[in-house]
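Follow-up to my post from last week.
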Amino acid sequence: MKAALAFTFAAAAFGQELLIRNVNIHPVTAPAVANTSLLIRDGRIAEISPKIRVPKTVKALDAQGAHLYPGMIDSATNLGMNEISSVREASDISEIGDFNPQLRTLVAVNPASEHIPVARANGLTAAITIPSGGIIAGQAGLMHLDGWTWEEMEVTRSAAMHLRFPVLRATQGLLRGAAPGAPVTFAEMQRAHQEQLDKLRLFFENARRYQKSKAAAGPGFRVDLKFEAMLPVLDGKLAVLINAAREREIREALDFAQREGIKVILSGVREPGTQIARIKSMGVAVIVGETLALPLEEDDAYDSPFTMPAELHKAGILFAFATYNTSMVRNLPYHAAACVPFGLPPEEALKAVTINPAKIWGVADRTGSIETGKWADLILTDGDPLETRTQIKHMWIRGREISLESKHTRLYQKYLARP
Amino acid sequence: MTRTRFPIAALTLVMLADARGEDLVIRNAKILTVTKGRLDGEILVRDGKIATVAEKVMTPAGARVIDAGGQFVMPGIIDCHSHIAAEAINESSVSVSSMVGIEDVLNPEDIAIYRALAGGVTTANILHGSANSIGGKCSVIKMRWGKDARGILFEGAKPGIKFALGENVKRRGSAPETTARTGTAPPAFLRYPATRMGVEDVIREAFLEARQYQAGWKEYRDKVARGERVQAPRRDLKLEPLVEVLENKRLLHAHCYRSDEILMLLRLADELGFKIKTLQHVLEGYKVAKEIAAHGAGASTFSDWWAYKIEAWDAIPYNAAIMHKKGVLVSLNSDSAELMRRLNTEAAKAMKYGGLTEDEALALVTINPARQLEVDHRAGSIEPGKDADLVIFDRHPLSNYAKVQKVLIDGEVYFDRETDINKRAATAARRQALLDKQRQQQLEQKKGAARRPQ
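User reply:
Got it. Predicted complex:
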């Protein structure tokens, strides 16, 4: 029932119009325009102009000089799949098994999750939700943060195939005490790492054999759901989202992508080092690893997580920020803001939570900026959304006005009023 | 415990000359005093203490001058809940572990100290973990990077002790079938308590024992005072810290989440005659803010963490604001080496969630935690007589676009961004030299192995 409250304002936007007057528009893809108006019609941005003529019957909102930005998009979350992280029953993130390309996150998204309104309240209108577990974890989905069902939330059911690229990290076992049976010496770890890589190669090889035998349509061909799900990957139609934090891991991941001829998006990138040039030349997009995080090594510069995105920007790489979280998705803008004092231009930081993710996820024709024809995925604020002190005043997703109420605002009101 | 003992960054960071005894003037600063509003002016530091704060101070001959270039100066940030700089956190084998203390395991070479400094933190409360109802003793430290374990202690700070309630404490009492269901590793042995009821019992039993112990010593001292020759009671290192709590000589910091357990501890404290100095985490503190304020306990909470476990399910980012409005002394803490570095913007969240003013927000990470640790005569605001623990930010510290330029503790510069940047090439060269040396050794080992007859 509580979750339903959030949707009471979300009447169907089709056939409806809303005029937002006296507003400063920050389109993100163009310079800001002061004191103008914006018309929403049928869920889309119909017109932006200081002089929009509409009949008096059209609902109008006087923004009183507030600021209109595109809604923000988090490029890595577990939203809807995980309610309380320490409770096994409340989590649907990780499946058993090394290869599960057939799994789709969206079908396990709980549209009534309390985390969704909490994320929205700080200006998030869409998010990628990602499975994790094994080597190929499944298909990440892109969803709007509004809808009675996951189907209504869906933007792209299959936005990317999530490949958790096998990494060799000596610190895990060598220094911190390995679990029983886990590799301990460096040689053992290298062996285990190689075994995982071999498994992955074999899986791709088998998927290609399947592709051929399906094309041949010979007798005895049987559908295999795992390999079937790999076909768009092999055809280069579906990008593979590959986790790779450090230079060596990124090199291995890019080597793999080149060898297999697949389309790739890197995620969790922390220390790309010399691989930056190659990321650029291969035209690979990057989901930045958490920036509100400690440096990877003790002797790394204290500000290394904050300075890296500026390097990506200088190299001309398309990148976006992400929280890799559920309950802390609302802090996405602060991951971007943290890089501004360390060299990332503020307008680039803002792009990396709006238009950049829209481009990376293939929906820039529909969202990510304020342009006519695009969905009205908008937030009205009293200032820069990357600043903590800024308040989000209104939100629209596909033109529907969305309540900014959440479990948190309800408990606030309730207990503030306690006598 | 194996770990890199000498981070390269540490080796290459050259401590600036000891400034004690030398006068220092910080000029051209937007001074956020926290307790006395904002002042555009200068600060005179003498013998490591703030001597004068004024629009214009008298610059003594030979004084060092730092031109803040119109940037912001605020008091050093204080984190009332941290576990950095310690080699061990939890003595989890027993439910009452008051005999152990963080001071014995302080590690002044933890890189987290330097990183916290770089985030403007000058003081932190280093707590024992939350595995037991009555945990170990805590230490207040200053981020005097480069000093030894004794040198980082906040000298004269009142000692503390950690208590804990709720899930973390109960976990050791969970039977294997429960842990299997929840997917957590079963404990090696079962330890009482397994419920919040048991937690109350453990604390009550311990204090009844401590009161008896206290009475034994009082009786002994009375007899000695009367000139009687009697044998002293046997010292009990577990009960001594609890007697100190009863005698208000040791500050009690209690980890808690849910409103029921918070109320339980408040009532238990009233019954047994001790004070709770701070409730830590206290994520449902907003539900019992009235009761917390009535007891006089402080509250040190997270800005916006929630839902990471059942007892954090009702946590809200308005917690700090509600408690503050209802008369509780509130601070925001990190409990994390990462979050610790940006407590200034954590404070800004109390403006967003609950509408605190700038000064109220800054107080959450400066003067309020100083009061909670009873070091407010030394730290937490920019006032004459206090330690010169100061941070220079290039923009207003409540902005996400601000970064720390310099950090002073006792008038000494312990972090300087420019110095840090200038040292980076040398750090990288040293790292490379070590790697090269290691590769060379590996090559020689291989050659040696190849030469050995089969």
